[in-house]
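Q: Could you fold this chain for me?
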Amino acid sequence: MITLRPLLRAAALSALTLASLAVQAQVSVKEPWVRATVAQQKTTGAFMQISSTEPVRLVEAKSAAAKIVEIHEMRMDGDRMMMKAIDALDIVPGRTLELKPGSYHIMLIDVLKPVNAGDKLLLTLVIEGRDGKRSAVEVSAEARAMNATRPAAAGEHRHAH
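A: Sure. Below is the predicted structure, expressed as structure tokens.
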């Protein structure tokens, strides 16, 4: 006698996995990196380029490397640079959302240990679709030197003439 309950459970799990993969497939992340820290520094930023084939929102970021992870905005307010946490960032189809120093970024607060150049930090980006459903996009971000503004693209090189 074959019981259908385990088979139905497996089929439901497979369907959920495929639905999650379909949502993830529409979001791509390029050049993820995080700024290395110096001794006693407890905060750092993560940067990347995010694009999607459908309108979605970045609503949360998580990492086991820090106690608090927030989406931040930096902007000029008069003659002062201001930074604050924001609830979400829209990702518009056909446009790349660039998280970069001095602009939108992921802020890692109370990092648990120093972040050295070359370290890999795992981040989870929580993406919300127009229908309110959320999916997780896992990102491995390499730590770059403190003075880095962006990583060199693969194969990119510079000449001084």
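A (continued): The first strand starts at residue 27 and ends at 35.
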